[in-house]
Amino acid sequence: MPKVKINTINHQSMPMRNRIRALGFWRDLLGLEVIPSQESGDGLIWMQAADGTMVHLVQRQDDNAPNIHTAFEVENFDETLTAMREAGYEITKGPLERADGQRAFYVNDPEGNRVEFTTKSGLKSSDRIVDDNGYTTN
Question: What CA–CA distance (Å, rounded) separates 80 from 48?
């Protein structure tokens, strides 16, 4: 039996070069709702579909490296973290806790793809707000 118990895909992260153009596609055309980002940084736009699945738009770095990754919500966060370490995977970021209480950490799969593992979102209240251009403030 696997040690990691994936419940669902929490979000897909996608790179963006132009914030206004990205919002025109993801929000205005596809109808995703812009929601407050639960991490700091102006280069992020968090968006949500009707079922709660999210797309996170991430400002591309100057080197044009892709920012694509998939985040899996897991039932057993601490066991997943232990399983990754015991399997020899380096934790490249985290574990961390976001403003809404969600915990997360990142690894690279054997092909070098970034993979994130999270708890559920919205575990505690957050007073973060988002403006029409997707910028989040406290």
Answer: 25
Closest CA to 121 of 96, 93, 102: 102
Rounded to whole angstroms, how far apart are CA atoms 69 and 112? Answer: 11
Residue 53 structure tokens: 């699945």
What's the CA gap between 94 and 129, in Å, rounded?
24
Q: Model confidence at 65, in pLDDT bands (50, 70, 90)?
A: low
Host H or E run for residue 4: none
* 20 secondary structure, DSSP code: H
Domains with residue ranges and CATH for the chain: 6-137 (3.10.180.10)
CA 74 to chain centre: 13
Q: What is the pLDDT of residue 11?
A: 93
Q: What is the DSSP letter of 56?
A: E
HSE, side-chain direction, 13 A CA sphere, residue 78: 0
Residue 69 has pLDDT above 70, yes or no: yes
